[in-house]
Protein: Thiolase N-terminal domain-containing protein
Organism: Erythroxylum novogranatense
Amino acid sequence: MLKDGLWDVYNDFGMGICGEICADQYSITRQEQDSYAIRSFECGIATQNASLFSWEIVPVEVSGGRGKPSTLVDRDEGLEKFDAAKLRRLKPSFKVNSGSVTAGNSSSIRNMQELVTCAGEDAQVNVTTDSYATVNTKLDYGSSSLLFRKCSRIW
């Protein structure tokens, strides 16, 4: 996991440091990062509670192992554990004394991430539901990994 997504292979340090560099360069404060994360969690919770995307979720049965019962995963369990007050109290994770990126306001690693399968025309695919999208083109775009968190401000 560390080498596959959490490490900037171009600069040889963790992606959290890239987040710190981006926050410094664009003067994004800890409070702004926390507020954005809290709003994101609250939107996710409201969406999940209203079952707005439940039609897109395929429940997955996870073995309990060694005689334990299996568990049906059909929700993002991380949303149920969210506590805004705890998020605001977290210590910086990457720049200990002067950082602003924490485990709470940075990207989460989730067990309910989206799963998208793309296959060429000649691939044999067995699907039990109707497709609702077709990829007709592709676009590769990249920017400096140091600024991976850069995006337009939403509010």
The longest strand covers residues 60-62.
